[in-house]
Amino acid sequence: MLVNHLVANRQLCAIYPLKKYSCDEMTSIRLQAQRARELQAHIDAEAGGPGKGWFRIVADPAEARQVIGAGKLAVVLGVETSEPFGCRQILGIPQCTKAQIDRGLDEMRALGVRTMFVCHKYDNALCGVRFDSGTQGAIVNVGNLLATGSFWQARTCTGPEHDNPIDPAGVLPDQIARLLPPGVSLPLYPPAPHCNTRGLTALGEYMVQGLMRRGMLIELDHMSVKAAGRTLDLLEAARYPGVISSHSWADPNFLPRIYALGGMVTQYGHDATEFVAEWRRTAPLRQRYQVPGYGYGLDVNGMGKLPGPRAGNAANPVTYPFTSYDGSVVLDRPRTGERVWDVNVDGVAHYGLVPDWIEDMRHLAGQDLVRDLAAGAESYLRTWEAAITDG
Prior knowledge:
Distance between the termini: 22 Å
CATH superfamily of the largest domain: Metal-dependent hydrolases
Helix content: 40-55%
Number of domains: 3
Largest sheet: 7 strands, parallel
InterPro entries: Metal_Hydrolase (IPR032466)
CATH class of the largest domain: Alpha Beta
CATH architecture of the largest domain: Alpha-Beta Barrel
Number of strands: 17
Number of helices: 14
CATH topology of the largest domain: TIM Barrel
Radius of gyration: 21 Å
Shape: globular
Structural class: alpha/beta
């Protein structure tokens, strides 16, 4: 089972020199949804006709179970963007309305979208974001200025939850620094731990409630801790289980609340050693809440990387060929043209090496981890089914 998020960023698009499509985020989202359908049609045509391909975009959990039962890939469409429905804010003034949110949610459902982020990289009219750190954070903070008219606003946290720290050593590359207005530089922040002062706005609460009414899944990652905490308050008051943390971008203190609601947590696609360590650390939580499976969010993009080769793997490398976890397929080093790929050397250089990455983690953690990952689709479907029932 695959969740395919449709992702757009107006600011990155604006500064990228090679483009032929609109930088409007919702225009991009619509095009990506169309392209996903075109990919499905292409795979169908290769397999002999409509409905015969292995790539199936699904609209509900029952359809997903049917697709998986037929040995095919169930694909769920999602949206991960900074300005959903045009809901940006400029100097704190919202640029969208409740009516726009309702129209946008209805349109997304009609396109087949079933899961959404409320905010992504930049503060918007709905919620404040969880910061990036280091040089990447400095770059994203400039994007926040260009998108909203202001840099991130942060305070020193007083509670156990916090956002990622804003690194004072974050250095702007020259080509990004040139985007700043004359005389403007990155701000200084109070001591860490840092918390975004922006939480879930009234419009953000309206969107969360709209997602619940439509039985859609709510992605908690990328929200500031102030916004995420308030979102969980709303979900708990409604006893709504449809909440996901998909790629390690939420404060770990929120995980028990997510599981208690009936939600699901998956981990960012870290290198094998780090992924196994986090899987082990969170195993008691899954046992406490009787969660059947686990998952991974590769989140690969221009800023997010795929897992690299495992350090020290010479002592126990992946040996080729190897057999898939269920014994049905023997896998050798993938080949593209004359290039042969090896996870021990290349890491997950492309999606075709994901099975090799899982085999690498099996060397570290044994079959229990593989069984948890194999049951990840079941966990996701149970959360989705409960959201539809309670939405």
